[in-house]
């Protein structure tokens, strides 16, 4: 396996009137080719900011530090024109709500023609449509949908079309930010099964950003758990779920309500504010295993145990 | 079992689809969304009854109908035996003191321009303070109202109440706002609380806290809940009885324990199977229903789940548009589309009721007829078995189905199921 994407010491800070918000801090993450990496965390933990930082889609008040290595390039030092050329061609992204990502005034066919011609201006519309039909068949959308407007399509169809738009140039990495959160449970399973089979067919890597631990358990090869802008724990899916080490991961897994739940559990307290700098472990106030050192010293993430697990906790 | 607190009998709620003046003149304006279509259930006092289903199944419409925010098209709603289906404004005013709604989004349910204390006080000013004997009296002074709000805040765990009274919603956390909303609801001392997706917006790590809070309130105030959710796992934990809804109908209803232990309706089975399991060592290949929930303006004939059902029978309601869906699915494969181009394209097929047809123009209809016969034969299954005939009418090739068997809810193994398999 080779690394498709490597994040090193990636930090994102937003300047706001109230001060600096440290949305992502010192994240190291490697995404291997042909695998699904699950990035899981709760609202406000920085997982979506991280996804957008990779594609340089953040607003102007964001400062990004560290490095994002992709295909031998550091994306952070590329000029905007080159980044634009990589987007959609080598790096693609799908979002939670496909309706807001499709132009309501454009037929589906024009979305495809525009996307293809943005990268290959010489392609004639008819040829572009032929390519569109091919990828649509791969995501199992009948080609008559090309003549429709986004509002005429169901939520599942729209998300399949978003995926098809991403597949046009066979990207090496697809970032899927909560791709099924707006969908019902049966459709969610359909779309993820589709992503999984397409990933194999197109030999892509997928970064699956989600709050849903169940989805990660079912589809991801590796998991990174984010809390308050940092990665708390990272490892291969099976050992991480079998034996979570970070107290936050443990709490999160215990709080999942599934069909076998007989006793409810919730992690005490609320996530901390990301405003300004704070010393110590960000999970300190909510942690049931906290020690004195946790209050003042930040636990650097490091290898723990034998399964290449990385944990940011003073317990290990 | 005690006498039901709430009874809903054959409730129908249909919404007219907005269409323009010209369209209405031309007679195309009577399209209706069948949001709720013949729903019957009852809730006993002290029970937690769950309505579970995917978006668009009608569960929220039922909630809104119960509190008079939406008018029933037909059917009956009885609260403690009293008819409240089409309440006049006075009945509605009294009804809302007894049935209250908790929404999914606590933030949206609170006015951003009103302190949370005032939000609760307002309710007490309008409806009066509840007394021990279940009556209401007008508060003697503003101070008395404020005192009553303090009392409520204390009850829902917003302590000290005086600290919270003058806060605006955006100064509170999600959990605290949920408590304010619960307090405002409880201020009326309702008997039935309709909770519409009360935890869907909350993060997993704090979701349990809200559920526990709802259960505490239930015990403390002897409440009855109608719990509405799309999440089967939460429903299993919370509910005594559940009704599984699909496209405006309850397809399976009974005690939660019975249904979860041994689901009968194919849709219930599909839903349960689709829930992601947070254990990577138990991954299985899931066989999912095809396609998506159809449009409620034109619900499928017969059983509404039949086009997606993995175990459908020939009698389940196959109709013209199912042929079009079949051709569409089949011709996703470019080779087949090319080989069978004579019968296509799919856009030229039209469905009406039990029939589907295509005017082949100058082509030889007999050839298209044979081709369609072969496609149907190759496909096989209940759709093929339900076909009455494939024939030529002038230049049109027609596929006609036999009418479906009537769907009657049946009681089987301790629950009611709406399915022809049983």
Q: How would you sum up this structure, described in words?
A:
The complex is a heterodimer of chains A (316) and B (422). Chain A has 316 residues and is of the alpha/beta class. Chain A has two domains: 3-90 and 171-265 and 301-311, Rossmann fold; 103-168, no CATH class. Chain A contains ten helices and twelve strands. Chain A is globular, with a radius of gyration of 20 Å. The mean pLDDT of chain A is 93. Chain B is α+β, with helices and mostly antiparallel strands. In chain B, the strands form four sheets. Chain B has an eight-stranded mixed sheet with strand order 6-9-10-3-11-12-18-17, sandwiched between helices. Chain B has a four-stranded antiparallel sheet with strand order 2-1-4-5, covered by helices on one side. In chain B, strand 4 and strand 5 form a beta hairpin. In chain B, helix 5 (116-127) crosses helix 6 and helix 5 (116-127) packs parallel to helix 8. At the A-B interface, helix 5, helix 6, helix 7, helix 8 and helix 9 of A face helix 9, helix 10 and helix 12 of B.
């Amino acid at each position: 396996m080779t690394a498709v994407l490597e994040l090193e010491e990636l930090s994102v800070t937003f300047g706001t009137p109230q001060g600096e918000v440290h949305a992502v801090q010192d994240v190291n993450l490697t995404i291997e080719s042909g695998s699904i990496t699950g990035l899981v965390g709760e609202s406000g933990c920085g997982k979506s900011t991280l996804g957008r930082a990779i594609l340089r889609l953040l607003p102007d008040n964001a400062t990004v530090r560290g490095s994002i290595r992709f295909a031998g390039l550091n994306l952070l030092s590329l000029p905007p024109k080159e980044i634009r050329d990589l987007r959609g061609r080598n790096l693609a992204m799908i979002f939670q709500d496909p309706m807001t990502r499709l132009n309501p005034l454009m037929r589906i066919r024009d979305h495809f023609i525009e996307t293809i011609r943005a990268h290959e201006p010489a392609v004639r519309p008819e040829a572009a449509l032929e390519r569109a039909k091919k990828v649509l068949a791969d995501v199992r959308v009948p080609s008559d949908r090309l003549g429709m407007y986004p509002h005429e399509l169901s939520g599942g169809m729209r998300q399949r079309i978003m995926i098809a738009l991403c597949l046009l140039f066979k990207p090496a990495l697809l970032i899927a930010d909560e791709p099924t959160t707006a969908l019902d449970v049966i459709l969610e399973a359909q779309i993820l099964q589709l992503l999984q089979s397409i990933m194999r067919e197109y030999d892509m890597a997928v970064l699956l950003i989600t709050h849903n631990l169940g989805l990660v358990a079912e589809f991801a090869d590796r998991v990174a758990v984010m809390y308050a802008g940092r990665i708390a724990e990272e490892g291969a899916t099976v050992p991480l779920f079998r034996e979570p080490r970070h107290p936050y991961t443990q709490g999160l897994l215990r709080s999942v309500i599934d069909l076998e739940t007989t006793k409810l559990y919730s992690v005490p307290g609320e996530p901390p504010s990301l405003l300004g700098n704070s010393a110590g472990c960000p999970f300190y106030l909510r942690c049931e295993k906290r020690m004195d050192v946790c209050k003042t010293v930040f636990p650097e993430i490091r290898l723990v145990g034998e399964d290449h697990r990385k944990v940011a906790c003073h317990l290990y | 079992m005690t006498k039901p607190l709430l009874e809903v009998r054959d409730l129908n709620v249909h919404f007219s689809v907005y269409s323009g003046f010209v369209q209405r003149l031309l007679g195309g304006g009577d399209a209706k969304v069948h949001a709720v279509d013949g729903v019957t259930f009852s809730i006993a006092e002290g029970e937690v009854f769950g309505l579970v289903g995917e978006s668009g199944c009608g569960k929220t419409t039922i909630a809104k109908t119960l509190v008079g925010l939406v008018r029933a098209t037909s059917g009956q709603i009885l609260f403690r035996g009293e008819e409240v289906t089409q309440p006049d404004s006075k009945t509605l005013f009294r009804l809302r003191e007894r049935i209250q709604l908790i929404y999914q989004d606590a933030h949206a349910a609170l006015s951003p321009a009103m302190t949370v204390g005032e939000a609760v006080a307002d309710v007490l000013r309008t409806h009066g303070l509840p007394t021990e004997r279940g009556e209401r009296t007008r508060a003697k002074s503003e101070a008395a109202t404020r005192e009553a709000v303090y009392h409520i805040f204390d009850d829902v765990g917003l302590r000290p109440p005086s600290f919270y009274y003058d806060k605006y919603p955006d100064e509170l956390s999600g959990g605290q706002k949920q408590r304010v909303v619960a307090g405002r609801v409880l201020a009326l001392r309702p008997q039935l609380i309709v909770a519409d997706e009360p935890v869907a917006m909350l993060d997993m790590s704090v979701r349990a806290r809200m559920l526990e809070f709802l259960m505490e309130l239930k015990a403390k105030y002897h409440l009855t809940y109608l719990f509405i959710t799309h999440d089967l796992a939460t429903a299993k934990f919370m509910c005594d009885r559940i009704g599984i809804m699909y496209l405006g109908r309850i397809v399976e209803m009974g005690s939660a324990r019975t249904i979860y232990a041994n689901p009968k309706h194919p849709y219930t089975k599909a839903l349960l199977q689709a829930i992601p399991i947070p254990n990577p060592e138990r991954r299985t290949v899931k066989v999912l229903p095809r396609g998506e929930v159809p449009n409620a303006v034109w619900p499928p004939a017969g059983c509404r789940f039949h086009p997606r059902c993995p175990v459908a029978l020939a009698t389940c309601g196959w109709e013209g548009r199912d042929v079009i869906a079949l051709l569409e699915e089949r011709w996703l494969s470019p080779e087949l589309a090319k080989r069978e181009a004579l019968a296509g394209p799919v856009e030229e097929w039209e469905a009406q009721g039990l029939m589907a047809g295509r005017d082949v123009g100058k082509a030889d209809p007999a050839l298209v007829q044979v081709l369609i016969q072969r496609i149907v034969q190759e496909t096989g299954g209940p759709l093929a078995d339900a076909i009455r005939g494939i024939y030529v009418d002038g230049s049109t090739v027609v596929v006609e189905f036999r009418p479906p068997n009537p769907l009657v809810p049946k009681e089987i193994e301790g629950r009611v199921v709406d399915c022809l398999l049983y």
